[in-house]
């Protein structure tokens, strides 16, 4: 029988009261319980939009798209219609999990060597980093296949918020200030986000009438307006000729996108990843996301070790990231079945000893023939840089449908370029590719290819019924954040609010494990004694989650403090 080691940090966990939320909260609350549907996002306006859709008879997918469109207004540095994302969706009527891949694609003119030799930061702030947007195609496919309302109707809350504005909080102000040096180098971006030459002050009202007009036109004309129409032409023109401020000394490279790339884009239905964990089924996003495979492999490894504690959590994550770098990308033959097999997990788990593995851990060999404890012989791939800013939301409705949805424009502020007159920032998603030279790397760029992602929207089922949904922003720390939430909930026995609030550490096959200060205060000494070394990361992730408590009751949970705290809401706090 496997022994579970419960960390002493449970005494330090920020306890969040699980009192029911008011029906119409005027400020964010991180935990809400009730009936008839629930939502958790990072933003109050987005959560209100989702709950309003649910109250008016819309389903979880309708609400998720409405909330995602609002986040494009209030969280424009993390999401928007010029970005992309992934959805994991449970259809209660069909009793089946579906996933939608709305990841951006590389233009057909991009090759494996396009990014070679370009400094990373220079690549980010350029037209070259902009991938073909997938968000609008994702929304369209999601609503047509699983929703009950039109895209035009789903966009109404976002149009309203963009028109009337929202109150600038400290997070929005700080993110604008952190981007000010590059925002000022583009005329359209400076005009929108640096009025009077400075970030909007905290407490002021920020309006985006250009984005409101863009959403209205999208509602009227439909997705083809982007994928081959006038909006697409304007995006291509911005990518190829960025509106650089006269006198700027920044080297802004033009991009490769053509209107034909937009016409060719498709959001895709994919089979989810699935692993069995502690008698439950865990579903995630398959490649080109590495979220489902890496979270799933790490869970399998933890099931295969004799003891499951923080040391084992870090080592399981280290091994899964080694395999992610070697085998996962938008390529024809990802060995997904073997990466998620029990045999491979046992072979990898035997590498975990009493002390931290030498850096870097080499990948295993998911060849289907597994020995008791072979010595890995491959070489590790370094963890590529990924932008930390994404956003995640979860929604459930009264019929039992559930959505976990990650959406992003990659770095905070994307590539820094607003499409003139449209109020929307372009993504820098193509910097998620490996820059090279890196022969054999599955994540090298290529024509039409989707860059590897770490987004990990996740659904957990017990005896065929959903029990938990979770996800987070954070670049490659998304994977470890979701993994740690599951470990906290199911290995260490925390309730869901505590599992989200608990201090975090992230090991991604790097020499040092990054950790929040509270984690270091409690665990550094014991883990350094096992050979781990640490570096401070002030804030890891900004998760949202739902747990289904039985008899129709749902608990929605968002971060209490990270990234300014999130917003959890339910349709009805009390059954009526």
Plain-language structure description:
The protein has one domain: Glutamine Phosphoribosylpyrophosphate, subunit 1, domain 1. The chain has 576 residues and is of the alpha+beta class. The radius of gyration is 22 Å and the shape is globular. The protein has helices at residues 44-55, 60-74, 120-124, 135-146, 151-154, 156-164, 170-183, 187-193, 209-221, 230-240, 259-264, 291-304, 310-327, 336-339, 342-349, 477-491, 496-501, 517-528, and strands at residues 3-4, 31-41, 84-91, 96-102, 166-167, 205-206, 268-270, 273-277, 280-284, 307-308, 390-397, 402-408, 458-462, 465-471, 505-506, 513-515, 534-536, 544-550, 553-558, 567-572. Mean pLDDT is 94; it is low at 9-23. One of its GO terms (biological process) is glutathione biosynthetic process. Keywords: Acyltransferase, Glutathione biosynthesis, Hydrolase, Signal, Transferase, Zymogen. One of its GO terms (molecular function) is leukotriene C4 gamma-glutamyl transferase activity. It comes from Nonomuraea mesophila. Residues 356-387 are annotated as: Disordered.
Give the key terms.
576 residues; alpha+beta; 13-stranded antiparallel beta sheet; 18 helices; globular; GGT_bact; Glutathione hydrolase proenzyme; leukotriene C4 gamma-glutamyl transferase activity; EC 2.3.2.2
CATH topology: Glutamine Phosphoribosylpyrophosphate, subunit 1, domain 1
Give the overall form: globular
**What is the terminal-to-terminal distance?**
44 Å
User: What is the architecture at the second tier of CATH?
Assistant: 4-Layer Sandwich
Give the helix proportion (percent range): 25-40%
Strand proportion: 15-25%
Unreliable segments of 5+ consecutive residues: 9-23
Q: How large, in whole angstroms, is the Cα Rg?
A: 22 Å
Give the CATH superfamily. Gamma-glutamyltranspeptidase, small (S) subunit
Total helical elements: 18
How many domains is the backbone divided into?
1
Task: Output the CATH class name.
Answer: Alpha Beta
Q: What average pLDDT do the residues reach? A: 94
Question: How many β-strands, per DSSP?
Answer: 20
Instruction: Tell me the structural class.
Output: alpha+beta
GO biological process, one term: glutathione biosynthetic process
Binding site for L-glutamate: 103, 432, 453-454, 475
EC number: 2.3.2.2, 3.4.19.13
InterPro entries: GGT_bact (IPR051792), GGT_lsub (IPR043138), GGT_peptidase (IPR000101), GGT_ssub_C (IPR043137), Ntn_hydrolases_N (IPR029055)
